[in-house]
Amino acid sequence: MRYFFFLTIFIIPIFADDCSEYNEKNNTKYNCDCNETTWQKYYSYMLNCWLPNANLRNVDLKWANLEGAYLVGADLRYSQLVTANLTKANLVNANLVNANLSWANLEDANLKGTDFRYANLENANLKNANLEGANLVNASLVHINLINGNLKDASLFDADLMDANLENANLTDAWLWYANLNEANLKNASLIVADLRYANLVNTNLQDANLTDASLFDAKLMNANLKNANLEGSNLKHADFTGADFDGTLLCGAEIDMEFKLQDWRGVPVWERDCFGICGGDMTITKDKCGVCGGNDEPNTGSCDCKGLPNGNAIIDACGVCGGEGDGSDCNNNGMLDICEGIYGSSLNPITNLTDLNNDGAQNILDVVKLVEKVLKE
Protein backbone atom coordinates (compact mmCIF):
# COMPACT_ATOMS: atom_id res chain seq x y z
CA MET A 1 0.00 0.00 0.00
CA ARG A 2 2.84 2.37 0.77
CA TYR A 3 4.33 1.84 -2.70
CA PHE A 4 1.00 2.49 -4.35
CA PHE A 5 0.62 5.77 -2.48
CA PHE A 6 4.15 6.75 -3.40
CA LEU A 7 3.53 6.21 -7.12
CA THR A 8 0.22 8.02 -7.05
CA ILE A 9 1.51 11.28 -5.64
CA PHE A 10 4.32 11.35 -8.17
CA ILE A 11 2.45 10.23 -11.27
CA ILE A 12 -0.21 12.93 -11.01
CA PRO A 13 2.25 15.84 -11.09
CA ILE A 14 4.06 14.24 -14.03
CA PHE A 15 0.85 14.22 -16.09
CA ALA A 16 -0.01 17.73 -14.99
CA ASP A 17 3.43 19.06 -15.80
CA ASP A 18 3.35 17.33 -19.19
CA CYS A 19 -0.02 18.90 -19.95
CA SER A 20 1.02 22.35 -18.73
CA GLU A 21 4.15 22.24 -20.84
CA TYR A 22 2.12 21.19 -23.89
CA ASN A 23 -0.35 24.01 -23.33
CA GLU A 24 2.44 26.53 -23.02
CA LYS A 25 4.25 25.36 -26.15
CA ASN A 26 1.16 24.96 -28.33
CA ASN A 27 -1.00 27.76 -26.95
CA THR A 28 -3.74 25.28 -26.03
CA LYS A 29 -6.06 25.15 -23.04
CA TYR A 30 -6.37 21.49 -22.12
CA ASN A 31 -7.76 20.79 -18.66
CA CYS A 32 -4.71 19.32 -16.94
CA ASP A 33 -6.70 18.52 -13.80
CA CYS A 34 -8.88 16.12 -15.78
CA ASN A 35 -6.58 13.22 -16.64
CA GLU A 36 -6.43 9.44 -16.60
CA THR A 37 -6.59 9.23 -12.80
CA THR A 38 -9.19 11.93 -12.19
CA TRP A 39 -11.57 11.86 -15.19
CA GLN A 40 -14.34 10.09 -13.27
CA LYS A 41 -14.79 13.18 -11.09
CA TYR A 42 -15.51 15.19 -14.21
CA TYR A 43 -17.82 12.70 -15.92
CA SER A 44 -19.87 13.48 -17.90
CA TYR A 45 -18.58 17.03 -18.38
CA MET A 46 -15.09 16.23 -19.69
CA LEU A 47 -14.32 19.16 -21.97
CA ASN A 48 -10.65 19.46 -22.98
CA CYS A 49 -9.58 16.63 -20.67
CA TRP A 50 -5.92 15.59 -20.94
CA LEU A 51 -6.03 11.84 -21.65
CA PRO A 52 -3.07 10.82 -23.84
CA ASN A 53 -2.52 7.04 -23.92
CA ALA A 54 -5.21 6.70 -21.26
CA ASN A 55 -6.55 3.23 -20.51
CA LEU A 56 -10.29 3.60 -21.05
CA ARG A 57 -10.96 0.11 -22.27
CA ASN A 58 -14.53 -1.13 -21.65
CA VAL A 59 -15.40 2.20 -20.04
CA ASP A 60 -18.97 3.48 -20.26
CA LEU A 61 -18.80 7.05 -21.59
CA LYS A 62 -22.32 7.32 -22.97
CA TRP A 63 -23.50 10.92 -23.19
CA ALA A 64 -20.06 12.16 -22.11
CA ASN A 65 -19.02 15.60 -23.31
CA LEU A 66 -15.43 15.14 -24.48
CA GLU A 67 -15.38 18.14 -26.76
CA GLY A 68 -11.81 19.19 -27.50
CA ALA A 69 -10.36 16.36 -25.37
CA TYR A 70 -6.79 15.15 -25.96
CA LEU A 71 -7.04 11.37 -26.47
CA VAL A 72 -3.97 10.72 -28.59
CA GLY A 73 -3.05 7.04 -28.39
CA ALA A 74 -5.84 6.32 -25.88
CA ASP A 75 -7.11 2.76 -25.47
CA LEU A 76 -10.89 2.87 -25.95
CA ARG A 77 -11.46 -0.69 -27.07
CA TYR A 78 -15.01 -1.94 -26.41
CA SER A 79 -15.87 1.41 -24.81
CA GLN A 80 -19.40 2.79 -24.91
CA LEU A 81 -19.45 6.23 -26.53
CA VAL A 82 -23.05 6.28 -27.70
CA THR A 83 -24.16 9.89 -28.31
CA ALA A 84 -20.84 11.13 -26.87
CA ASN A 85 -19.68 14.59 -27.90
CA LEU A 86 -16.16 14.34 -29.34
CA THR A 87 -16.30 17.51 -31.41
CA LYS A 88 -12.77 18.73 -32.22
CA ALA A 89 -11.30 15.96 -30.05
CA ASN A 90 -7.80 14.70 -30.87
CA LEU A 91 -7.87 10.91 -31.22
CA VAL A 92 -4.77 10.45 -33.38
CA ASN A 93 -3.65 6.80 -33.27
CA ALA A 94 -6.28 5.98 -30.64
CA ASN A 95 -7.57 2.40 -30.39
CA LEU A 96 -11.35 2.16 -30.79
CA VAL A 97 -11.62 -1.46 -31.90
CA ASN A 98 -15.16 -2.75 -31.24
CA ALA A 99 -16.13 0.57 -29.64
CA ASN A 100 -19.74 1.75 -29.87
CA LEU A 101 -19.92 5.31 -31.23
CA SER A 102 -23.42 5.25 -32.66
CA TRP A 103 -24.95 8.73 -32.81
CA ALA A 104 -21.67 10.19 -31.52
CA ASN A 105 -20.62 13.66 -32.65
CA LEU A 106 -17.06 13.72 -34.01
CA GLU A 107 -17.34 16.82 -36.18
CA ASP A 108 -13.92 18.38 -36.88
CA ALA A 109 -12.24 15.62 -34.85
CA ASN A 110 -8.68 14.55 -35.64
CA LEU A 111 -8.82 10.78 -36.22
CA LYS A 112 -5.64 10.35 -38.21
CA GLY A 113 -4.41 6.77 -37.99
CA THR A 114 -7.19 5.85 -35.54
CA ASP A 115 -8.15 2.16 -35.32
CA PHE A 116 -11.91 1.70 -35.77
CA ARG A 117 -11.95 -1.97 -36.73
CA TYR A 118 -15.38 -3.52 -36.07
CA ALA A 119 -16.50 -0.27 -34.41
CA ASN A 120 -20.12 0.86 -34.55
CA LEU A 121 -20.36 4.37 -36.02
CA GLU A 122 -23.93 4.19 -37.23
CA ASN A 123 -25.61 7.60 -37.53
CA ALA A 124 -22.46 9.29 -36.21
CA ASN A 125 -21.51 12.79 -37.31
CA LEU A 126 -17.97 13.00 -38.70
CA LYS A 127 -18.39 16.10 -40.81
CA ASN A 128 -14.99 17.65 -41.64
CA ALA A 129 -13.25 14.93 -39.62
CA ASN A 130 -9.69 13.92 -40.48
CA LEU A 131 -9.52 10.14 -40.95
CA GLU A 132 -6.37 10.02 -43.05
CA GLY A 133 -4.84 6.57 -42.80
CA ALA A 134 -7.55 5.41 -40.37
CA ASN A 135 -8.40 1.71 -40.10
CA LEU A 136 -12.14 1.17 -40.60
CA VAL A 137 -12.02 -2.47 -41.66
CA ASN A 138 -15.39 -4.15 -41.00
CA ALA A 139 -16.68 -1.02 -39.28
CA SER A 140 -20.40 -0.20 -39.40
CA LEU A 141 -20.85 3.29 -40.87
CA VAL A 142 -24.51 3.09 -41.83
CA HIS A 143 -26.14 6.54 -42.23
CA ILE A 144 -22.89 8.21 -41.17
CA ASN A 145 -22.22 11.86 -42.01
CA LEU A 146 -18.77 12.22 -43.58
CA ILE A 147 -19.33 15.40 -45.57
CA ASN A 148 -15.95 16.98 -46.38
CA GLY A 149 -14.25 14.19 -44.47
CA ASN A 150 -10.63 13.30 -45.19
CA LEU A 151 -10.28 9.53 -45.69
CA LYS A 152 -7.14 9.60 -47.77
CA ASP A 153 -5.31 6.25 -47.55
CA ALA A 154 -8.00 4.95 -45.18
CA SER A 155 -8.72 1.21 -44.98
CA LEU A 156 -12.43 0.48 -45.47
CA PHE A 157 -12.27 -3.20 -46.40
CA ASP A 158 -15.73 -4.75 -46.00
CA ALA A 159 -16.98 -1.62 -44.21
CA ASP A 160 -20.72 -0.97 -44.23
CA LEU A 161 -21.35 2.54 -45.59
CA MET A 162 -24.95 2.05 -46.65
CA ASP A 163 -26.73 5.39 -47.08
CA ALA A 164 -23.61 7.22 -45.87
CA ASN A 165 -23.15 10.87 -46.82
CA LEU A 166 -19.66 11.31 -48.28
CA GLU A 167 -20.28 14.42 -50.35
CA ASN A 168 -17.01 16.26 -51.08
CA ALA A 169 -15.10 13.64 -49.10
CA ASN A 170 -11.49 12.81 -49.93
CA LEU A 171 -11.06 9.05 -50.47
CA THR A 172 -7.91 9.28 -52.54
CA ASP A 173 -6.05 5.96 -52.52
CA ALA A 174 -8.56 4.50 -50.04
CA TRP A 175 -8.95 0.71 -49.79
CA LEU A 176 -12.63 -0.20 -50.29
CA TRP A 177 -12.63 -3.86 -51.26
CA TYR A 178 -16.09 -5.38 -50.68
CA ALA A 179 -17.28 -2.14 -49.06
CA ASN A 180 -21.04 -1.63 -49.00
CA LEU A 181 -21.82 1.81 -50.44
CA ASN A 182 -25.38 1.01 -51.39
CA GLU A 183 -27.33 4.28 -51.81
CA ALA A 184 -24.40 6.28 -50.45
CA ASN A 185 -23.88 9.89 -51.50
CA LEU A 186 -20.43 10.40 -53.02
CA LYS A 187 -21.25 13.50 -55.01
CA ASN A 188 -18.11 15.47 -55.88
CA ALA A 189 -15.99 13.07 -53.83
CA SER A 190 -12.36 12.35 -54.69
CA LEU A 191 -11.70 8.65 -55.30
CA ILE A 192 -8.50 9.05 -57.29
CA VAL A 193 -6.62 5.70 -57.45
CA ALA A 194 -9.07 4.32 -54.88
CA ASP A 195 -9.45 0.53 -54.87
CA LEU A 196 -13.16 -0.36 -55.04
CA ARG A 197 -12.84 -3.91 -56.28
CA TYR A 198 -15.93 -6.02 -55.54
CA ALA A 199 -17.61 -3.05 -53.82
CA ASN A 200 -21.38 -2.58 -53.73
CA LEU A 201 -22.28 0.79 -55.27
CA VAL A 202 -25.86 0.03 -56.23
CA ASN A 203 -27.97 3.21 -56.45
CA THR A 204 -24.94 5.21 -55.32
CA ASN A 205 -24.67 8.89 -56.21
CA LEU A 206 -21.27 9.47 -57.86
CA GLN A 207 -22.21 12.60 -59.78
CA ASP A 208 -19.17 14.84 -60.41
CA ALA A 209 -16.97 12.40 -58.45
CA ASN A 210 -13.34 11.97 -59.48
CA LEU A 211 -12.42 8.31 -59.96
CA THR A 212 -9.33 8.85 -62.09
CA ASP A 213 -7.23 5.65 -62.22
CA ALA A 214 -9.53 4.00 -59.66
CA SER A 215 -10.29 0.28 -59.75
CA LEU A 216 -13.93 -0.76 -60.02
CA PHE A 217 -13.09 -4.29 -61.06
CA ASP A 218 -16.09 -6.59 -60.58
CA ALA A 219 -17.94 -3.88 -58.63
CA LYS A 220 -21.74 -3.57 -58.58
CA LEU A 221 -22.94 -0.18 -59.86
CA MET A 222 -26.46 -0.94 -60.97
CA ASN A 223 -28.54 2.23 -61.31
CA ALA A 224 -25.63 4.34 -60.05
CA ASN A 225 -25.54 8.03 -60.90
CA LEU A 226 -22.25 8.73 -62.70
CA LYS A 227 -23.25 11.96 -64.42
CA ASN A 228 -20.21 14.11 -65.23
CA ALA A 229 -17.99 11.85 -63.14
CA ASN A 230 -14.34 11.42 -64.10
CA LEU A 231 -13.39 7.79 -64.74
CA GLU A 232 -10.32 8.44 -66.89
CA GLY A 233 -7.90 5.53 -66.74
CA SER A 234 -10.13 3.58 -64.35
CA ASN A 235 -10.52 -0.21 -64.41
CA LEU A 236 -14.14 -1.07 -65.24
CA LYS A 237 -13.66 -4.70 -66.21
CA HIS A 238 -16.38 -7.12 -65.11
CA ALA A 239 -18.26 -4.32 -63.32
CA ASP A 240 -22.06 -4.27 -63.58
CA PHE A 241 -23.39 -0.90 -64.76
CA THR A 242 -26.90 -1.99 -65.66
CA GLY A 243 -29.17 1.05 -65.49
CA ALA A 244 -26.30 3.39 -64.56
CA ASP A 245 -26.30 6.96 -65.87
CA PHE A 246 -23.12 7.84 -67.81
CA ASP A 247 -24.27 11.15 -69.26
CA GLY A 248 -21.21 13.40 -69.59
CA THR A 249 -18.99 10.87 -67.82
CA LEU A 250 -15.31 11.07 -68.79
CA LEU A 251 -14.13 7.62 -69.89
CA CYS A 252 -10.94 8.46 -71.80
CA GLY A 253 -8.40 5.69 -71.30
CA ALA A 254 -10.75 3.60 -69.14
CA GLU A 255 -10.26 -0.17 -69.21
CA ILE A 256 -13.46 -1.84 -70.37
CA ASP A 257 -14.45 -5.23 -71.70
CA MET A 258 -17.18 -6.62 -73.93
CA GLU A 259 -19.54 -6.86 -70.95
CA PHE A 260 -19.49 -3.08 -70.60
CA LYS A 261 -20.47 -2.59 -74.23
CA LEU A 262 -23.34 -5.04 -73.95
CA GLN A 263 -24.80 -3.70 -70.71
CA ASP A 264 -27.91 -1.55 -70.67
CA TRP A 265 -26.59 1.71 -69.22
CA ARG A 266 -27.85 5.20 -70.07
CA GLY A 267 -26.40 8.53 -71.19
CA VAL A 268 -23.69 9.73 -73.56
CA PRO A 269 -20.20 9.41 -72.06
CA VAL A 270 -17.07 11.12 -73.37
CA TRP A 271 -14.40 8.88 -74.90
CA GLU A 272 -12.18 11.30 -76.85
CA ARG A 273 -9.56 13.88 -75.87
CA ASP A 274 -9.28 17.25 -77.55
CA CYS A 275 -6.24 18.70 -79.32
CA PHE A 276 -4.66 19.59 -75.95
CA GLY A 277 -5.18 16.07 -74.56
CA ILE A 278 -8.08 17.13 -72.35
CA CYS A 279 -10.82 14.52 -72.07
CA GLY A 280 -14.04 16.11 -73.25
CA GLY A 281 -12.35 19.40 -74.10
CA ASP A 282 -13.14 21.71 -77.02
CA MET A 283 -13.21 19.39 -80.02
CA THR A 284 -13.52 22.34 -82.43
CA ILE A 285 -9.89 23.32 -81.82
CA THR A 286 -7.54 21.64 -84.29
CA LYS A 287 -3.83 21.63 -85.04
CA ASP A 288 -2.43 23.95 -87.70
CA LYS A 289 0.10 22.80 -90.33
CA CYS A 290 2.87 23.30 -87.77
CA GLY A 291 1.19 20.89 -85.36
CA VAL A 292 0.19 23.62 -82.89
CA CYS A 293 -3.25 23.32 -81.28
CA GLY A 294 -5.24 26.40 -82.20
CA GLY A 295 -2.19 27.83 -84.01
CA ASN A 296 -2.04 30.17 -87.03
CA ASP A 297 0.67 28.48 -89.14
CA GLU A 298 3.22 30.93 -87.76
CA PRO A 299 6.96 30.45 -88.52
CA ASN A 300 9.14 29.07 -85.74
CA THR A 301 6.18 27.42 -84.00
CA GLY A 302 5.68 23.70 -83.56
CA SER A 303 7.41 21.78 -86.35
CA CYS A 304 7.69 24.79 -88.69
CA ASP A 305 11.01 26.45 -89.49
CA CYS A 306 11.55 30.20 -89.78
CA LYS A 307 10.00 30.17 -93.27
CA GLY A 308 6.85 28.50 -91.98
CA LEU A 309 7.60 25.15 -93.64
CA PRO A 310 6.61 22.06 -91.60
CA ASN A 311 9.72 20.04 -90.72
CA GLY A 312 11.80 22.53 -92.74
CA ASN A 313 15.49 23.17 -92.06
CA ALA A 314 15.71 26.92 -92.56
CA ILE A 315 17.19 28.76 -89.60
CA ILE A 316 17.97 32.37 -88.78
CA ASP A 317 21.66 33.13 -89.35
CA ALA A 318 23.93 35.33 -87.25
CA CYS A 319 22.71 38.41 -89.10
CA GLY A 320 19.05 37.69 -88.31
CA VAL A 321 18.19 36.53 -91.83
CA CYS A 322 15.94 33.46 -92.20
CA GLY A 323 17.76 30.93 -94.37
CA GLY A 324 20.81 33.20 -94.62
CA GLU A 325 24.45 32.17 -94.36
CA GLY A 326 25.87 35.21 -92.65
CA ASP A 327 28.32 34.68 -89.80
CA GLY A 328 27.69 38.13 -88.34
CA SER A 329 30.98 39.71 -89.49
CA ASP A 330 29.64 41.65 -92.53
CA CYS A 331 25.86 41.66 -92.34
CA ASN A 332 25.38 44.51 -94.84
CA ASN A 333 27.64 42.79 -97.41
CA ASN A 334 29.71 45.92 -98.16
CA GLY A 335 33.05 44.15 -97.95
CA MET A 336 33.97 45.81 -94.66
CA LEU A 337 33.86 44.14 -91.27
CA ASP A 338 30.94 45.56 -89.37
CA ILE A 339 33.13 46.19 -86.34
CA CYS A 340 35.36 48.48 -88.39
CA GLU A 341 32.57 50.67 -89.71
CA GLY A 342 32.62 52.79 -86.58
CA ILE A 343 36.18 53.85 -87.38
CA TYR A 344 36.16 54.04 -91.18
CA GLY A 345 33.47 55.31 -93.49
CA SER A 346 32.39 53.63 -96.68
CA SER A 347 35.15 55.51 -98.63
CA LEU A 348 37.80 53.96 -96.36
CA ASN A 349 38.96 57.48 -95.42
CA PRO A 350 39.65 58.02 -91.71
CA ILE A 351 36.91 59.88 -89.91
CA THR A 352 37.35 62.08 -86.91
CA ASN A 353 34.77 60.47 -84.68
CA LEU A 354 37.07 57.91 -83.02
CA THR A 355 36.39 56.22 -79.74
CA ASP A 356 38.84 55.93 -76.89
CA LEU A 357 39.30 52.17 -77.09
CA ASN A 358 42.39 51.99 -74.86
CA ASN A 359 40.93 54.34 -72.27
CA ASP A 360 43.94 56.69 -72.26
CA GLY A 361 41.80 59.81 -72.50
CA ALA A 362 42.80 60.55 -76.09
CA GLN A 363 41.47 59.56 -79.51
CA ASN A 364 44.43 58.74 -81.76
CA ILE A 365 46.17 56.03 -83.81
CA LEU A 366 46.64 53.94 -80.68
CA ASP A 367 42.90 53.37 -80.59
CA VAL A 368 43.07 52.01 -84.16
CA VAL A 369 45.85 49.65 -83.12
CA LYS A 370 43.68 48.49 -80.23
CA LEU A 371 40.80 47.85 -82.61
CA VAL A 372 42.96 45.83 -85.01
CA GLU A 373 44.22 43.71 -82.11
CA LYS A 374 40.65 43.03 -81.07
CA VAL A 375 39.64 42.00 -84.60
CA LEU A 376 42.62 39.65 -84.91
CA LYS A 377 41.79 37.98 -81.60
CA GLU A 378 38.21 37.34 -82.69
Helix-strand layout with pairing:
Blueprint: H1 2-26, H2 39-42, H3 258-262, H4 365-377
Can you tell me the CATH class of the largest domain? Mainly Beta
Order of helices and strands, N to C? Answer: HHHH
Structural class: little secondary structure
Unreliable stretches: 1-16, 346-354
Helix content: 10-25%
User: Shape, please?
Assistant: flat
In CATH, the homologous superfamily of the largest domain goes by the name: E3 ubiquitin-protein ligase SopA
Count of distinct strands: 0
Number of helices: 4
Structure description:
- It is flat and about 105 Å long.
- The protein has four domains: 116 residues, Pectate Lyase C-like (3 Solenoid), CATH 2.160.20; 121 residues, 3 Solenoid (Pectate Lyase C-like); 43 residues, no CATH class; 40 residues, no CATH class.
- The termini are far apart.
- It has four helices and no strands.
- By secondary structure, it is mostly loops.
